[in-house]
Amino acid sequence: MRLLLLNGPNLNLLGQRETSIYGNQDFDSFFKELTSKFPSVQLDYFQSNIEGEIINKLQEVGFSYEGIILNAGAYTHTSVAIGDCIKAITTPVIEVHISNTFSRETFRHQSYISPNAKGVIIGFGLESYVLGIQSFL
């Protein structure tokens, strides 16, 4: 099984930014833990702060991978284009969020990803990604 973990803007700062919300662990070290925890799954990782690069990656893998675990960051709440892209591809997408977006600012309650996602996992910290992987197994 081949899965892509795809992170959007500012998630490259995990472990440094707003640690009270996002925790102290950087994503690179967490990704190493994931690959050890799920040795039978081929996990690939991509992060971009640029909306078009996220769309390009979704289109690149969206017809050949078994699943995509997407944390689109703030683009979740603003990007009709990413939502449309998820609708256009055949690979199922699980939307994940580290924090509980519903306990934060009102604008974070809207998602353009959710209507086209296979499922949504919100608020379990980095464990949200583990749950996303498990949903495909």
From TrEMBL:
<keyword id="KW-0057">Aromatic amino acid biosynthesis</keyword>
<feature type="binding site">
    <location>
        <position position="108"/>
    </location>
    <ligand>
        <name>substrate</name>
    </ligand>
</feature>
<comment type="function">
    <text>Catalyzes a trans-dehydration via an enolate intermediate.</text>
</comment>
<feature type="active site" description="Proton donor">
    <location>
        <position position="97"/>
    </location>
</feature>
<dbReference type="InterPro" id="IPR001874">
    <property type="entry name" value="DHquinase_II"/>
</dbReference>
<feature type="binding site">
    <location>
        <position position="77"/>
    </location>
    <ligand>
        <name>substrate</name>
    </ligand>
</feature>
<keyword id="KW-0456">Lyase</keyword>
<dbReference type="InterPro" id="IPR018509">
    <property type="entry name" value="DHquinase_II_CS"/>
</dbReference>
<feature type="site" description="Transition state stabilizer">
    <location>
        <position position="17"/>
    </location>
</feature>
<dbReference type="Pfam" id="PF01220">
    <property type="entry name" value="DHquinase_II"/>
</dbReference>
<comment type="pathway">
    <text>Metabolic intermediate biosynthesis; chorismate biosynthesis; chorismate from D-erythrose 4-phosphate and phosphoenolpyruvate: step 3/7.</text>
</comment>
<feature type="binding site">
    <location>
        <position position="71"/>
    </location>
    <ligand>
        <name>substrate</name>
    </ligand>
</feature>
<feature type="active site" description="Proton acceptor">
    <location>
        <position position="22"/>
    </location>
</feature>
<comment type="subunit">
    <text>Homododecamer.</text>
</comment>
<comment type="similarity">
    <text>Belongs to the type-II 3-dehydroquinase family.</text>
</comment>
<feature type="binding site">
    <location>
        <begin position="98"/>
        <end position="99"/>
    </location>
    <ligand>
        <name>substrate</name>
    </ligand>
</feature>
<feature type="binding site">
    <location>
        <position position="84"/>
    </location>
    <ligand>
        <name>substrate</name>
    </ligand>
</feature>
<keyword id="KW-0028">Amino-acid biosynthesis</keyword>
<protein>
    <recommendedName>
        <fullName>3-dehydroquinate dehydratase</fullName>
        <ecNumber>4.2.1.10</ecNumber>
    </recommendedName>
</protein>
<dbReference type="InterPro" id="IPR036441">
    <property type="entry name" value="DHquinase_II_sf"/>
</dbReference>
